[in-house]
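# nightly structure sweep
# worker-07 picked up a monomer target from the shared queue
# config: single-sequence mode, recycle default, output format = structure tokens
# input follows
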Amino acid sequence: MLKIAVTLVLYNTDKQELNNVISACVNSTVLVDIYLIDNSPNDNLSYLDSDKRVNYFKSEHNGGFGYGHNTIIRRFKLLDSYDYCLVINPDIEFNFEVIEKISKYMEQNTGVGVLMPKILNHDGSLQFARRLLPSPFDIIRKKILPHFLHPKKYEMIDYEPNKPIKIVGLCGCFMFLRIDALKVVGLFDERYFMYFEDFDLCRRIAIKFSSIYYPNLSVVHYSNNEHRRSLKLLYYAIRATILYFNKWGYIDKERRVLNEKVYDSIIKGKGV
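# output follows
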């Protein structure tokens, strides 16, 4: 039997929202173990310590998204006990069959290290969570001048794949990770407090395995783009962007090659 861990990082998380995603995992057609780390500055979620559906840990330090998931993985020794790890946000809604179908695909395609399904907004519209690797100019256009110079090609707004395809730019709101891949490439880079840690991990996985966007299944993400309304989160977004390009390069030849392969596969409908 496959062993699947689900990890969530909490920070002042809405209780009803959290209960919904826990229930979705518990009611899945495959058995999963749920692990929560609470980075909140208060004890409002401490009741979860007695919730038998989950394994709860209250962190004394809020090190951010990647730090939180890494802490769960290390504290509960998930690399030694599981086949897969589903990294998921609390504001996700999905059908009870999603985890089973994704795990079956991963079992049939052993070269896949990470997979993300289609991400929808709460109104059913497509959330452009699968992207090409960004250039610095793509980020400037998206963050500073989104209404005038929107980077359509980077977000593939006009090109939605109709079959599984290799895409390195996957969102961390719902990432199904092969444990063996994590053993090879390592965990999240904890220098990113928030933002870009998902692209960074998927890119490292794609070097040794495949990073797959799977449009055959969908989940709903109640994203609210908080960084656009919070100066603190905007700071983290800018900091993460600089960190990412310092690490991978501002003039990135590999980015161009990977993006051209993705774009060509979508246009020609080749998939994987």
